[in-house]
Amino acid sequence: MSANSLDLIAALIARARAAGADAADAIYVNRVAHGVQVRNGCTEDLERSETCDLGLRVFVGQRAAIVSATALDPERFDTLAARAVAMARVVPEDRFAGLCEQARHGFVDATGLDLFDPATPTTTDLMARARTAEEAALAVAGVSNSNGASASFGLSDIILMTSAGFSGRYARTSHSVSASVVAGSGTQMQRDYDYHATVHLSDLEDAALIGRRAGERTVARLNPVRPRTGRLPIVLDPRVSTSLLGHLSGAINGISIARGTSFLKEKMGQQIMPAGITIIDDPRRVRGPGARPFDGEGMLTATRTLVENGVLKTWALDSRSARQLGLTPNGCASRGTSGPPAPSLGNMHMQPGTLTPTELMADIAEGIYITEMMGSAINGITGDYSRGAAGFMIRGGVLAEPVAELTVAGNLNDMFARLVPANDLTFRQSTNAPTIRIDDMVIAGA
Questions:
Q1: Are 141 and 219 contacting, i.e. CB atoms less than 8 angstroms apart?
Q2: How many domains does the chain have?
Q3: Which of 54, 64, 149, 297 could be disulfide-bonded to 333 (CB atoms 3.0-4.6 Å)?
Q4: What is the DSSP letter of 186?
Q5: Same domain, 404 and 293
Q6: Does 318 share its domain with 382?
Q7: Same structural domain for residues 304 and 422?
Q8: Which of 171, 172, 180, 174 minimizes the C-alpha distance to 126?
Q9: Is 49 exposed, middle or buried (0-12, 13-18, 19+ CB in 10 A)?
Q10: What are the tens digits of pLDDT across the range 261-303?
Q11: Contact yes or no for 273/305 (Cβ under 8 A)
């Protein structure tokens, strides 16, 4: 994307205003994706794509419309602007529609966030990483087959501009490696995986380590049993404990609150988790996978505390949901090129506790250590929770035999109120949590 792209987008917004729009904004995303996948030493997939997406949103009074295109072509600007304005004039009024009044004026970039890595891997580089990961996984005793290993590189260049005076641009890179393998044979096969993705190549874990962990995790799952049905404590591995933050994110989304469809809609300022629990959303985290300098409406992003000492402190708001609730937006808007902004959180994490994972489960006579969850029956209105799971029994405070084909059930209100975090927080993705223990969960097994 050239420097001239900013001028072209400014010209598009000017065309929209000339066509009759009272206000307008535009987002332009240029993406490069390069990835390979190997399976049993053979190349199974090789792809490279370069795409451009443009979205123009216009307001005519309290009416809004969006049009999108796949090229930043000035010869089409008049047509795009006229079409958008014509659409806006015939849709129903939305009294909450409009540009974000709190958006920053002037130009904003990602200085200080370190989101761009100039290292650009070749196909040969990606192939070598994928093969290294697969070979390391297959070398683990007991691994019988491969589901494939992959390596990828991505680059996104993003421009957002509004008719109210905001313009912003930033680029983000990504590097990743994954491996998935099978152990056992016949009806006794098990599979598992490992995966790592970073903004900078220098932060990416060694492909051989990722492959070896995938193999070891897979072999450890062989010959699982079904636990007894009953009420037991569970301990969530960090690979799955992050899902609790995902449920929290959905429950404090401004759209859900405005619609009254969240089980936390009446809990602002109340204790929803034990004292000592703090959850933070940090879109300013340096090299964070979800970091961004501004949101989808041009507000500057800022670190915010979602839960402090167990107390719910804020909703995630874009300007529309904030107007519905009579509140001020807080820089959480996210958007693509074909839809309006909506609240979304960036780099969430739960601060660690004081106990090691070993200490956290030392007093559990019988429980379940969960390493994988599948399916989802989460009622966002009531908080009722039910998911399939697999992992290991905890007996006498230590991990024992693998378990599978079980269901974990409860209510997120109760689960939040009982959770206890360990001290093993690491930042591996955009949402991160330590090992978490929750007592008295309903387990449906044998």
A1: yes
A2: 3
A3: 297
A4: G
A5: no
A6: no
A7: no
A8: 174
A9: exposed
A10: 999 999 999 999 999 999 999 999 999 999 999 999 999 999 9
A11: no
